[in-house]
Amino acid sequence: MLSYEAMKPTKWLLGITGGIAAYKTPELVRLLTKQGKQVRVVLSKGGSAFVAPLSLQAVSGHPVYSELLDTDFEAAMGHIELARWADGILIAPLSANRLAALALGMADDLLTTLCLATKAPIWVAPAMNQQMWHHPATQQHIATLKARNIHILGPAFGEQACKEVGLGRMLEPEDIVSQLFAYPKPLQGRNILITAGPTWEAIDPVRFISNRSSGKMGFALAQAATRLGANVVLISGPVTLPTPQGVKRLDVVSAKEMYAAVMQQVENMDVFISAAAVADFYVKEAASQKIKKDMQADFWQLTLAQNPDILAQVAAREKRPFCVGFAAETENIQANAKQKLQQKNVDLIAVNDVSRKDIGFDVDMNALTVFSPEATYHIPKDSKYHVSLKLLEIISEQVCKKYNYESLINV
Ligand code: C5P
Question: Of 130, 154, 180, which residue constitutes the final position of a domain?
Answer without folding.
Answer: 180
